[in-house]
Amino acid sequence: MPTSIRLAPEIEERLNFLAAQTGRSKAFYLREIIERGLDDMEDYFLAAEVLERVRKGKEKICSSTEIKKDLGLED
User: Within a 13 Å sphere around the CA of 12, how many CA atoms are in the beta-carbon half?
Assistant: First the structure.
């Protein structure tokens, strides 16, 4: 799916330099950045949503003692 983004001039310069020095395309590096960063972004933003539900009392939480008991791992 073609997508366009606007980069700050200094970021575009860095990307152009990297592509020229390595012989790879700018598109290659943009794909790499997105693919590697997407996991972190998902982790952060989805965790923030869960934290907000916990704070509002809308998300069930369990203590480690409860989890150990449920899993049969009590001492």
Answer: 5
- As a whole number of angstroms, the distance between CA 45 and CA 24 comes to 31
pLDDT of residue 3: 87
From CA 36, how far away is CA 19, in angstroms rounded? Answer: 18
Question: Tens of pLDDT along 22-39?
Answer: 999 999 999 999 999 999
The reply to whether 27 falls in a domain is yes
Answer whether residue 4 is part of any domain: no
- In the chain, the number of structural domains is 1
For the whole model, what pTM was predicted?
0.60
Rounded Cα distance, 54 and 50, in Å: 6
